[in-house]
Amino acid sequence: MIRPVFRARAAWCAGKLPGQGADFVALAKADPDPNLRIVAIRLARQLGADVLPLVRELADDLDPQVRRECAIALREIDGPSAAEVWAQLALKHDGQDRWYLEALGIAAEGKWNACLEAWRAAGGDLDTASGRDIAWRSRGD
Predict the structure, then answer these.
(1) Are the CB atoms for 125 and 132 separated by under 8 Å?
(2) Residue 42 and residue 109: Cα distance in Å, rounded?
(3) Which terminus of the chain has fewer CB atoms gathered within 10 Å of its CB, N or C?
């Protein structure tokens, strides 16, 4: 059996072949292995693809590592759509995962007010452990 890390490395290399990137992003994003879904996000970013649709699709992923990678990918995207996806990711913060919280902070850098506004509109609550974490990490007004 091939170890998951080797499958992820192979997908990365194959996706870097000329003309193959989009095909391998599509294959990797649908794979049951979270390592490959993470590779899909990273590969799409490196290839210069529009990652917002991919991040929006994977924002409900069951694996928190995939969702953290989604948040990191949002860092380079501005606009209300990115803030809405950020809010969707922030609602999944459980108040326990410090790495997830840091990924949310990296994603919201320079656009904290828009992200917090979208989070509150989506049902974000400051009176929860996760809400207090987000408020603590926030750099918004």
Answers:
(1) no
(2) 19
(3) N
Backbone angles phi, psi at 137, to 5 degrees: -75, -20
What's at 51, amino acid-wise?
Answer: V
Q: Hunting for tokens 């953290």 — which residue is that? A: 68
Cα–Cα distance, 6 to 56 (Å, whole number): 27
Q: In 3D, which of 53, 52, 42 has the Cα closest to residue 15? A: 42
The pair of three-digit structure tokens given for residue 21, joined into one six-digit string:
């990137």
Cα dihedral 74, 77, 81, 87 sign: positive
CA dihedral 70, 43, 98, 105 (to 10 degrees): -60
Per DSSP, the residues of 36-76 read HHHHHHHHHHHTT---HHHHHHHTT-S-HHHHHHHHHHHTT
Residues 39-67 have pLDDT tens digits of 999 999 999 999 999 999 999 999 999 99
Neighbour tally for 70: CB within 10 Å: 28
Q: Which residue positions in the chain have pLDDT lower than 50?
A: none
